[in-house]
Amino acid sequence: MEPTNVPAFFFAQAARLGNRTWLHHHRDGDWRTITWEEGATGVSRIAAALVRAGVRPGDTVALISENRPEWLLCDLGVQAAGAVTVPIYTSSPPASVHSILKNSEAVFAIASTPALAEKLGQPRPGFQIGLIDEEVAAWLQAEPAEADAAEVERRLGRLGRDDLATIVYTSGTTGEPKGAMLAHRNLVDMADSSLAAIHVGEEDVILSALPYAHVFERVSSVCVGIRAGATIWISRGVDRLVDDVAAARPTVILGVPRIFEKVRERVLDTVRSSSALRRGLFEWAHAAGRRHLPLEHPLADRLVLGRLRERLTGGRLRFFVSGGAPLGIEVERFFWDVGIPILQGWGMTELSSGATLNTLVAHRWGTVGRALPGVEIKIAEDQEIMVRSPGLMLGYHANPEATAEVMADGMLRTGDLGNLDADGYLTITGRKKELMKTSTGKYVAPMPIEERLMGDPAVEWAVLIGDARPFVSALIVPDWAALARRGIEGSPDELAQDPRVRELVQAAIDSANKDLGSWESVKKFTILPHTFSEEGGELTPTLKPKRRVLAERFAKEIDGMYAGHDVTRAGAARR
Fold this sequence. Notes:
Blueprint: H1 6-17, E1 21-27, E2 30-35, H2 36-52, E3 60-64, H3 69-80, E4 84-88, H4 94-104, E5 108-111, H5 114-120, E6 128-131, H6 132-141, H7 146-158, E7 164-169, E8 179-183, H8 184-197, E9 205-208, H9 215-228, E10 231-234, H10 241-248, E11 252-255, H11 257-272, H12 276-291, H13 296-313, E12 319-322, H14 329-337, E13 342-348, E14 353-357, E15 370-371, E16 376-379, E17 384-388, E18 395-396, H15 400-406, E19 407-408, E20 411-420, E21 426-431, E22 436-437, E23 443-444, H16 446-454, E24 459-465, E25 472-478, H17 480-485, H18 492-495, H19 499-513, E26 522-527, H20 547-553, H21 555-561
Parallel strand pairs: 1-10, 3-4, 3-5, 5-6, 9-10, 9-11, 11-12, 12-13, 25-26
Antiparallel strand pairs: 1-2, 7-8, 8-18, 13-14, 14-15, 16-17, 17-20, 19-20, 20-21, 22-23, 24-25
Helix pairs in contact: 1-2, 1-3, 2-3, 2-6, 2-7, 8-9, 12-13, 12-14
């Protein structure tokens, strides 16, 4: 009989694959492995320990930890005990953590460190906390009591497809996080849908780099990996990604656009600083990769592109998958040109991750691909994207009003704007709530303009301002490392006032404004001396700017762009 829930699928794969390696993880200065069989033992022991601790079927258990094997073991262990996992980002401020614990009615929490445990507080009487390096470590070493193990088996057998598996809270770019309730069938069916679109199998090696608390990584890497029987390497994070790629030599890497943008820019910066001969060789090879002529391309691949792929990916990468935010078309084209397919997709927490995906055989530039198998997409009259999907959430936990706002006739009002072409490829044009309306009554979609600006080598971050304002302006964070590689050095505070930096930013603004209407072109900008970060609260875990936070934090700078300045020309920006 086919398993009906996520842990049952895992146990079935573990029984089949046995002592084959499931996970690679870095600990105490070296890479270590966990087999499928060892993983199954760990999951069973954690589930039994939770039963012994009084966790009942349907109870919610919070999980706050960086990516590590215990995160996966605990997630599966919670579900095997018949309970519901509530993942929390380690970067979440205490106020958000408390809000999540209250809304989810969590009775137990697992934290990786004492500092993270302190964030949890004591939301209700009887609330328990287990530390990964203490309680969970002890659970993993102890044989469960026979009665506890039997209870886990009983609960697992009763756990159905429609039972709640997890509550995933949105990252909250514009408001209070809401908890999307995802059933076991949502996670399993979307993993199967993804596998029907792109082949991933036991021979594949997946490098897992995004936070497991994010549904994109959890479904697209972990659930797909389990269903496919693939091997997973747990990256040490974006800062160590290059080293981890070299060690893992993965065949599949998932990431958000900012990761791929930085990789591309680093390659181009290296080329710019090379000799004229090397620059010319790369430019020829890059152009040959784009033209893909039968006689020219093999030579370019042998001399340049193949070596570049080896350095960037370890030499056996089959494809990147990009999600979580829009991918600029120049970044997309760059990787395809050098022989690394990058497959852009689109989805939402409320849809259990992906809804559309470009594939190796069905790909269209500038789009997020076609609907995954079983997914239906419609475009409403106001251009809002509507989706019916096997991954569609059950609703927002304890929030029927918010659920009613986004559900219509069994479809999700996604809040994203877009259009479908005749072949079913979806293009995202903006976010409904992020549309700016200037004081002159003109609507502006900031996202495409920001993408253009951030495609410039000098710009790290660009955030447009203009709602209820007379014109559009921008907050700009330059790419300090890229400037240093050009010989423009100094502290960020000094460089924010440097005429050379302002000239480079001005050029990026002028280029972005070229084919824009006067009402949507950027008229003024402010250079910020400090970059945005997840830890600082300016970015979501998938590296998207939190507009409301930035508008509040830089209110003085924003007001300054609109005080006493006359706009002299539509295509330029002056502070």
